[in-house]
Amino acid sequence: MVQFSLWLALVGAGTLISFTPGAGAIFTMSNSLNSGFRRSIWGILGQQVALVIHIVIVALGVGVLVSNSPVIFNVIRYAGAAYLVYLGIRQFLHKPDLDKEEVANKKNESALSMFQRGIWVNLLNPKAIVFFLAFMPQFIRPDQPLLQQYAVLTTTVIIIDIMVMWFFFALAARSFQRFTHDQKGQKVLNRVFGCLFVLVGILLAVIH
């Protein structure tokens, strides 16, 4: 079992990391605006699947390969950056949904579609692998059973991230809903979130 004091440190670090704005936070706020607070959970759950994949990769030691191979790292990094820029451009150019039927269709995006987009937003971020490669060893004791430790770490990080994403970022997006009732307001929001996605994508590509 994980030492309680070590687990508390993990909770503190995990909470701080989840509150740090990034692609996941922007994606969650965008989903909350477009599809509603409750349905934004599907995108959040998709992000958690990607998070688990990253942890498994690191746990299996593949993270060492990715972090030490410029070719592999850059291919994944640029793919992730390109996907975020694509999302941003699509959001930026999206026309205001003033037609009630169009709004209903957008709010009725399938849970599977939101889930899949959530996976890709987090999965195509190789820096997460490098981050976990540096982060996870701080909370793992090699002389203790590793499987249980990774299970506790993964569960803790996922629960924290879901709570922060859904009950902070998704709720925060609701305060912007008053801008969605007219064409000008929707246009402003689409451009703001579009620019944020593009900015995160560019930063992912240029920051080493």
Automatic annotation (TrEMBL):
The chain crosses the membrane at residues 6-29, 41-65, 119-140, 152-176, 188-207. The keyword Transmembrane applies. GO terms for molecular function: homoserine transmembrane transporter activity. It is a multi-pass membrane protein. The keyword Cell membrane applies. It comes from the Bacteria. Its main location: membrane. This is Lysine transporter LysE.
